[in-house]
Amino acid sequence: MPSITPSPSELPLLTTIASLDQATVKFFQNQYPDYDEHASEFPLWIDGVDTTYAPFIPTSVRRVLLALEMARISPTDKVLDVGSGDGRFCYAAVKLFGAQAALGIECEQDLVDKSTELATDLVQEGRVSFQVADLATWRDMASMQSKEWTVIIVYLSPEGGDDLCQWIQQEFKRGVRIVALVFDMKHLDGLHCSFEDSQEGIWIYEKPKN
Ligand SMILES: C[S@@+](CC[C@H](N)C(=O)[O-])C[C@H]1O[C@@H](n2cnc3c(N)ncnc32)[C@H](O)[C@@H]1O
Question: Which interval of the chain is the signal sequence (predicted)?
Answer without folding.
Answer: none
